[in-house]
Predict the 3D structure of the following.
Amino acid sequence: MEQLTERLSHIKMFVLDMDGTIYLGEHLFPFTKRFLSQVMRSGREYCFFTNNSSKNREAYLKKLSHMGIEISEDKMLLSNGVILEWLKENRPGESCYVVGTPSLLADFQNAGIPLDEENPDLVILGFDTTLTYEKLSKACAFIRSGRPVFGVNPDLNCPVENGFIPDCGSIAALVKASTGVSCEFFGKPSPHTLQYMLRKTGCHPEELAVVGDRLYTDIAVADGSQVTSILVMSGETTPELLTQSAIQPDLVVRDLDELANLLS
C-alpha cells in the first residue's frame, strides 16, 4: 500500500473512461461528482477518454452538461480523434468508406478527410448504431478488392442500462468472418492512443493514470508503460474476469468513490 500511495502521489492527470466508470447509459453514478471534486482539491486534474465512436465530442460535452459536469473541449478525448490524427499524418489525402454513424462521418468531414462510397482508398469501421446490411456488404466488397481496413475502437460490447449492445469490435469480427481480413484498431488499448493521451495532456507517463472498467481496453492501454492503470469494478469487469485475465491493473477499486477516499 505504501508503494501504491507513493505512485499515486506522482499522478497529475486522471484519464477517465465514461460508460461503466462515471455513468451507466444515461445515469450518472452518485459518487462521480464527489470524485471529480476530490481530484481538483488534491491539486490534480482530470479529463475523459471514450472509445465509443458512435458519437462526437459535441454530443459528449452536451451529455456531461446535462449531468451537471461542465468541462472545456480539450478535456474530452475520443477514439475518433486518435484515428483522424493518424490518417492525416500517415494517409494524407486518401479517401475513406466509413461504416459509422452520422456523427462519425461528420468528424471525418470536419477533419478534411474525403468520404467516398464508390471508390475509396480505405475502409473504416466504427461503432455504428445505424448499421445496415448494405453498409456491411459494401465494406466487405471493398476489403475483398484490396482496400486496407482500420477499426476506430476494438470494444466488443457497449454497456447500457439493461446489459450490453454490440460495439465496433463485434462489427469488425463479422467483417473478418466474411472477408478473412483483420483490421488494425485505434482507440484503447492501441499504442496510438497512449501517445495521443500523453500528447494531449502534456504529461510524462508516470504522471498519468488511466481509469476504467475494462481490462482489454482501459487497463491494457497502460500495459508495459509507466502509466498507472486503475480498474473500477462498477462496469464490465467481474471478479472472475479479473482473476482469469493476463492483463492486470496496478490498482483495483470498487468504484470512483473508493478511489476518492484514497486521494483524500
Q: What stands out?
A: The longest helix spans residues 79-90. The CA atoms of residues 11 and 62 lie 28 Å apart. The domain at 2-51+188-263 is CATH 3.40.50.1000 (Rossmann fold). The chain has a mean pLDDT of 95.
